Hints:
Radius of gyration: 16 Å
Shape: elongated
Order of helices and strands: HHHHH
Structural class: mainly alpha
Largest sheet: none
Strand content: under 5%
Amino acid sequence: MFGALTTVVNYEAFKAIVNATSIDYKIADVIAWALAVAFAYITNRLFVFRSNAAGAASVAGEAARFVGARLLTLLVDMAIMVLAVEKLGIGAEEAKIAANVVVIASNYAISKLFVFRRPGGGDGEDGGGGADGNGGEGKSGDAGDGREGEGSSMGGGTGLL
């Protein structure tokens, strides 16, 4: 659910910037990415991975890993956008949708394996099955833990943001 919301933040911000200004689509993409990354970090930390990072240093490290990972997927996003728009002649909004598909999956995997990984090998998500802890079925984008996968373009994006 939060991955989808992050994508909505990213895409709608991108669309609004492109349609309301004369800003180049690449700059609009970066602005939308920044908004989506901020939204994604908060929702990932609180709801998706239920981070237990405490103290300024721990939270700062987690946030730095998150933004660093999102910068990596921003590069993926931009590469897809430039290829689609400038080489394949696809419209910027359509290219943004295609880029989001790749970025969402990448963002979730990186967040799960690297950003929100708990010391001692935990992955930052509750173990043991469904949301009720009784092994219920998971939702799309996860391994049966009862919460939807996160993603964002860009992020964030972003993004997978």
